[in-house]
Amino acid sequence: MDNPSHTRLWTPDSWQSRPALQQPSYRDPAALARVLAEIARLPPVVVSWEIDRLRDEIASAQRGERFVLQGGDCAEGFEDCESDTIARKLKILLQMSLVLLHGLRRPVTCIARMAGQYAKPRSADTETRDGLTLPCYRGAIVNRPAFEAADREPDPELLLRGYERSALTLNFVRALVDGGFADLHHPEYWDLGFMQHAELREAYQRIVDSISDSLHFFEALSGGPIHETSQTRFYASHEGLHLHYEQAQTRYLPRRGRWYNLATHMPWIGMRTADPAGAHVEYFRGIANPIAVKVGPGMAAEVPAELTRILNPGNEPGRLTLIHRFGSEHIGQLLPPMIEAVRRTGSPVLWVCDPMHGNTETTPQGIKTRRFGNILAEVEAAFRIHEEQGSILGGVHFELTGDDVTECTGGARGLSDLELARAYRTSVDPRLNYEQALELAMLIARHRNRVQ
Ligand code: PEP
Ligand code: CO
Fold this sequence. Notes:
CATH architecture: Alpha-Beta Barrel
CATH topology: TIM Barrel
Order of helices and strands: HHEHEEEHHHEHEEEHEHEHEEEHEH
Low-confidence stretches: none
Radius of gyration: 21 Å
Number of domains: 1
Bound molecules: phosphoenolpyruvate, cobalt (II) ion
Shape: globular
CATH class: Alpha Beta
Strand order of the largest sheet: 1-2-5-8-9-10-11-14
Distance between the termini: 48 Å
């Protein structure tokens, strides 16, 4: 066997000598190269000191002193780069953070699947309809969803459009956050929009009142406003799937002596591209960002520990997050041995539960959905199992939207299979709607409050 991967030379393009799954093939390599050079020249979307701060926050979540809420669309479309949509998504994430802060009694770091979540892994490279076979749709930075040959042809210009929209989205998020949108002193910014359900509305209002009371109490004692803790920290993340795109935004910062991916704060490796010998793992091992990997069924038992050794050879705190996504039926059997195997590596990791991707099913009417009860059951099982194993569940990962869509069934309104057709808008996976997302945060917070 050759030398272990973490001692081999790494460069931003060393992934190119490994098998790279899920990459589009471009007809005109010169056009691709031109676009990538342009992206590499433009200013970065995020900066290294934000990335370093997130690494510190993840390290504190690993110790159980903080909680991570990661959430957003399965896939962003370019049409989502629009002020109301962005503000609504920010709002639901902030409301959930507030509820979790109250219930878990820990500061919350909010990491949005946003400002760059444009590339999607697919189960097949092509799609056939009525005898016509075309490349599959791989997300907004690759090609267009319409089933036409011209639309499905990977177009390098879309990478540039994606980079620009990431920057525009994050620019607006930063402005809202700086303007006080994420400040606990101003929960009135986060009116309840689509929240029609009276009981949930009241429960949320009680939490807001209780937090406002505590804040005023502490400020009266300390004689001034509490800034540091009253501001929810907000970061961007996306699946680092399109490796040329990620490489183009990878820069060496001489003062830090490390390479950073400046396209997002925390990129993650999807489950389909998490092969320890593959190109994605090779690319990720060399960047200084805090990174995550999705782990779950279908992965050989030794893989999560192997990934941990490759991706965090120095056992650096805050570096690695493992997002497990088993499905409510499998978590009980599969999570305990995984925790044990990873523990033996000696690396600190942040364990995050994604209760969405293992609970996808198709209704008798042929609609892809997820059931609220299964989502909740997987999160609760995750908390319990980590506790039993002496480890810590430090975060949750949801696919959600700030809109009133009907894509997941159940929740306080008891959305049925037949009601899904009313506002089913996702282009990929079904998302929790605004009410379901807030309800889920409340149920987690309430349940934890009872247990703690
Ligand atoms: C996703 O997060 O949208 C996704 C594709 O997840 P996974 O890699 O866990 O299947
Ligand atoms: Co998804």
